[in-house]
Design brief:
The protein has 95 residues and is mostly helical. It has one domain. Helix content is 79%, strand content 0%. The chain has three helices and no strands. The mean pLDDT is 87.
Length: 95
């Protein structure tokens, strides 16, 4: 895996976590919590989507539009999903 792919996945995960936190106010973990959960989800989501769908990262150092879009989608969705799950677990344990 090349570092550019990982950076794209982590950045889109952080954005996805914060977007999900702003849409799901009752599950929000605050800015820092949403960002951290998004980073974790972005890294995991990008890797899982890449392996399941066979999204190639191409030649290391060379970026194509399809791989960038796949990394953005996987990272963003993974970041939002992990933030929502962590927020839900936090709310369940607080009761």
């Amino acid at each position: 895996m090349d570092m550019i792919s990982l950076v794209i996945q982590l950045a889109s995960g952080a954005l996805g976590g914060n977007l999900a936190g702003s849409l799901l106010k009752n599950l929000s973990l605050g800015f820092l919590g949403n960002t951290l959960a998004g980073l974790v989800g972005g890294g995991l989501g990008g890797q899982i989507l890449g392996s399941l769908l066979g999204v190639s990262t191409g030649v290391p150092g060379a970026l194509d539009v399809a791989s960038i879009l796949g990394q953005l989608a996987g990272g963003g969705v993974g970041g939002g999903a992990v933030m929502a799950v962590v927020g839900l677990l936090r709310n369940m344990l607080a009761k």
